[in-house]
Amino acid sequence: MTSRIGVVTFPGTLDDRDSLRAVRLAGAEPVSLWHRDKDLKQVDAVVLAGGFSYGDYLRAGAISRFSPVMETIIDQAKAGMPVLGICNGFQILTESHLLPGAMLQNNHLHFICREQKLRVETSETAWTADYSAGQEIRIPLKNMDGRYVADERTLDELEAEGRVAFRYLDFNPNGSLRDIAGISNAAGNVVGLMPHPEHAVEPLIGTGRTDGLGFFTSILKKLVSV
Amino acid sequence: MTLDTVKHATETPDVEQPWKELGLKEDEYTRIREILERRPTGAELAMYSVMWSEHCSYKSSKVHLKQFGEKIPENDAMLVGIGENAGVVDVGQGYAVTFKVESHNHPSYIEPYQGAATGVGGIVRDILAMGARPVAVVDPLRFGAADHPDTKRVLPGVVAGVGGYGNCLGLPNIGGEVVFDSCYQGNPLVNAGCIGVMKHEDIHLAQASGPGNKVILYGARTGGDGIGGVSVLASETFDSTGPAKRPAVQVGDPFQEKLLIECTLEIFKEKLVAGIQDLGGAGLSCATSELASAGSGGMRVELDTVPLRDASLSPEEILMSESQERMCAIVEPDKVERFMEICEKWDVIATVIGEVTEGERLEIFWHGEQIVDVPPRTVAHEGPVYERPYARPEWQDALQADDANKLPRPATSDELREQVLALVSSPNQASKSWITDQYDRFVQGNTVLAQPEDAGMVRIDEESNLGVAMATDGNGRYTKLDPYAGAQLALAEAYRNVAASGATPLAISDCLNFGSPEDPAVMWQFAEATRGLADGCFQLGTPVTGGNVSLYNQTGEVAIHPTPVVAVLGVIDDVNRRTPIAFKEEGQLLYLLGDTREEFGGSAWSQVIHDHLGGLPPAVDLDREKLLGDILISASRDGMIDAAHDLSDGGLIQSVVESCLRGGSGARLIVPDGLDAFTFLFSESAGRAVVAVPRSEELRFNDMCGARGLPVTRIGVVDGDEVEIQGEFSISLSELRTAHEETIPRLLL
């Protein structure tokens, strides 16, 4: 039996279908999850996809964090279930305090959409095992509120514990502190990042690169090996 | 004051009514009285005034637009034509595609962000109302001079609005244009296009049939926004305690629209609606009268059941409100419950506001009292039609005689080099990535090509790799010089762009942006442009499926350049065969397809170097365009070319620079025999493209062009890290990149 990976749809989620496709292309079974539903349908891992959940009119991710589905996800994540938050999903993870820090509006005050170069800083998380530490990848980035901030002590802690998972290379697109593009929790099962690996899984589509597929093959291998 | 009921109107025939303030002409008001055989109620007057406005009734343009239906080419693809929310074409494999371009020009000047945002919202609902899932948007934009201070106000607002709304809907923005010209200073053009995909059996139409069927209004609550003329009515005739001054520009909520999209698609999936219409211009007035007019029966609406954002709205205001993110569906009674369940799932408010009746009248009630009783066709489809006088302006001859071919040309290689740099760094020719990078082009995971490619392309079937492409083009300068040719050049360029991407052009939508129809010179431009477009579509075999006319685009007495924007939709069987513009592979051969003549009228060169507009635009040869298109499509299908870029404004050098920068490789070019370097680089002769051919395909490609009679000239090779014109000059890619990419941020930041 292959692994089941859930993708949550909140009202205003946009990249849920893309994430389901990425899960499928990696060889896992994609499962749609609904924000009002506490039931995770026995999935082995969860992806919180990008978008503007609830319109992001308050603060990105601030309302989603209180949805019924998140109650279960927060509990399960603390118990070790792998969770990947992409863009708005990353924002929801920080709002849920599954990951430290917060996201502010891009320092240039514009939405930005571009192909972004990243360095994968660690292969020690559930979602990056198929990369090697230091590997450079290029995947799409698109956001309005992507500036990662945290206090100095938290940042030092993240660095010391090897929890800065991805760093922007060549160009910091939003003013994130220490060029941080994504981080993980201490256990490595919860990972959040602003760029979009689910948009880089087919050679013809988007930027024409498949650098993002590794996120989904990483988790699949991990789940199969458990 | 008392409610102006039908009964009250019958009893008080002599009440003065503010028809003039609402924009009606005296004879139009008289006609309304004749139709109703009494004076209209305030609510009726409001409905007629908005539905008979230029924007809704096309009263000045109708007589010219009918050519699009008369000169219709033989084309099996057309499934739904002009008159519905959007046209629909068959793209094969059971799929149908609906697409349309609309304008939101005037609101965007007043309030750039909301004007542009709701422009996107409106076109997306049109596409949704046909039964389709929206899959991509495009945005052709025109602004005043790039260095004018007001452009700094308008452009960032419009761009943020297009992005803010479209990005939040999850629709990839795959194309469009940004053009600067001082003629648009007080009147920017904000056009928005959308493509939607469905299966043939899912096509929905805007009609209300079946007596007893329920009329359901769903989506956002109705507020006081977007009420233009009606505030006149509300303040002059009715309760003066009501909210008097209203914002004329609507305010968008893309989150609500995203819910509306998903909710509506789920409703379609379960086949719960008999007819559907979005609420855009003229709001409920338009939706109820059009649905009733197109259906078989009448309609009765209880207006006081409409959910409101502002409880103080008068019935007239509710009828006219252009609050966004609303749809109106006709639902059989036994399907209402399920309809409501789906709306509840998506947190969308839905209300039964009336039903389809046996009669032939549209009747609207307010707390039990009748305030509207009209034949719906007279509101929606039988508005006034004007044969506006038109005349070729007397300045046209002088304009055409002011020949751009006689302008001083660069005398030395150094001067030629300087002019190349001036061209590629000029606002119109410079990279627009600062703008397009504010739009999400990746969402939905089906984007194959997006700006700055010749056409945007999305995959619509993951198994078969079926895809559709779209390009929008329009050149106001050409059209000013010769409206007939200018409209055909817009069509030809969009057609060429789609073919260059590897897709087969299928059908078009147009957005016709012109000045005041009351000016005979403008009306002549309009008449000539529509005639040119209709003739061109007939010749190319691409029918007009629908579109939009925007008139009164002018500041004072000065009209904008006539600007017909044409969107061509194409289909490609396998998106793996798409052709990008990038020159990547060193050693590949560059070929110029088509004939290059000394044609500089309306050219980018004449604008950038001489600030000149005069002469004649490039000659149009649509048979040649078709041949060129066929060659580009065949070459793509058979793998003979790795890159193709159409030649248009800026000429060959502009296209070569763009392709080189896109691919990161340089090019060495040789001026062909019989041409001088200047004409080779800057001429804007139509019907041309540049292609990169792998050496292994050289023979086959040449043979194909030779056999089909398309002139083909080898002009160089992909090589190095500079663009070199042999014997003339060279410019490094890094210098070109700086020149090309720094202009727009420098002007706008």
UniProtKB/TrEMBL annotation, chain A:
This is Phosphoribosylformylglycinamidine synthase subunit PurQ. InterPro entries: Class_I_gatase-like, PRibForGlyAmidine_synth_PurQ. Pathway: Purine metabolism; IMP biosynthesis via de novo pathway; 5-amino-1-(5-phospho-D-ribosyl)imidazole from N(2)-formyl-N(1)-(5-phospho-D-ribosyl)glycinamide: step 1/2. PROSITE patterns: GATASE_TYPE_1. It catalyses: N(2)-formyl-N(1)-(5-phospho-beta-D-ribosyl)glycinamide + L-glutamine + ATP + H2O = 2-formamido-N(1)-(5-O-phospho-beta-D-ribosyl)acetamidine + L-glutamate + ADP + phosphate + H(+); L-glutamine + H2O = L-glutamate + NH4(+). Part of the FGAM synthase complex composed of 1 PurL, 1 PurQ and 2 PurS subunits. Part of the phosphoribosylformylglycinamidine synthase complex involved in the purines biosynthetic pathway. Catalyzes the ATP-dependent conversion of formylglycinamide ribonucleotide (FGAR) and glutamine to yield formylglycinamidine ribonucleotide (FGAM) and glutamate. The FGAM synthase complex is composed of three subunits. PurQ produces an ammonia molecule by converting glutamine to glutamate. PurL transfers the ammonia molecule to FGAR to form FGAM in an ATP-dependent manner. Keywords: ATP-binding, Cytoplasm, Glutamine amidotransferase, Hydrolase, Ligase, Nucleotide-binding, Purine biosynthesis. It comes from Streptomyces maoxianensis. Its EC number is 6.3.5.3, 3.5.1.2. The keyword Ligase applies. One of its GO terms (molecular function) is phosphoribosylformylglycinamidine synthase activity. Signal peptide: none annotated. It is found in: Cytoplasm. The active site is at residues 87, 196, 198.
